Amino acid sequence: DPVLGGNYRMTEWQGAILNAQRTRWMEQLPRRNANGKYLTELLQSIPGISGLKDTGLNAYHLYGFRYEEAAWGMPRSVFLEALRAEGMSIAPGYASPLYDWPVFAQKAFGPMSASVAGYANAHIHRANCPVNEDVAYKSGGWLPQSVLLAERSDMDQIAEALEKVWKS
Questions:
Q1: 3-state secondary structure of 97
Q2: Dist CA 79 CA 145 (whole Å)
Q3: pLDDT of 86-97, one tens digit each?
Q4: What's the rounded Cα separation, in Å, for the pair 96 and 138?
Q5: How far is Cα 49 from Cα 84, in angstroms, rounded to an integer?
Q6: Which one of 11, 55, 77, 109 is most buried, counting C-beta atoms within 10 A?
Q7: Nearest to residue 74, comparing CAs of 148, 18, 155, 141?
Q8: How many beta carbons lie within 10 A of that of residue 107, not counting itself?
Q9: How far apart are the C-alpha atoms of 147 and 76, rounded to whole Å?
């Protein structure tokens, strides 16, 4: 059975890797942010695709967008497969919201109490996150952050792939 665990300290090895990556982060963050904003602009011209709102500086751990099935006339699973056939690394999102996972439903928090873990009322979060739930679990598509580390021309290729699938 799944149990919520605690990982309170990183190892020395993890710290060394993180420290070595720190220098790259200052170059990667602005690039991901610029490419994310640019991709969002490109997606505005594609029917049934909604990019992210610009909230200022975004770390873009993932690049998510909303797919409107009614506009495209195909199920999201078919849409995602068509994009994969065009060479895109795209995922549908998580299988289900964290608050629906058995570890939370069973309150299997191991050595932590539910209140300390912050999940005593996890079921309440559903009502507070309808947009996130829609994009992350029902109508969205996600690109990994590594895509946003590519060249600006690669963002053009993503939009071109979407347009090609739209026209097919």
A1: coil
A2: 20
A3: 999 999 877 777
A4: 9
A5: 16
A6: 109
A7: 141
A8: 14
A9: 21
- What does the alpha-carbon distance between residue 37 and residue 122 come to, in Å, rounded to a whole number? 32
106's CB contacts (< 8 A; 6+ apart) are 1
CA–CA separation, 83 vs 62, rounded Å? 17
Please answer whether residues 83 and 147 qualify as being in contact, where contact means their C-beta atoms are separated by less than 8 angstroms. no
Q: What percentage of the chain reaches a pLDDT higher than 70?
A: 77
> For position 42, what pLDDT does the model report?
95
Distance CA 43, CA 158 (A): 9
DSSP 62: E
- What are 18-69's pLDDT values in tens digits? 898 888 888 888 899 999 999 999 999 999 998 877 777 777 888 988 899 9
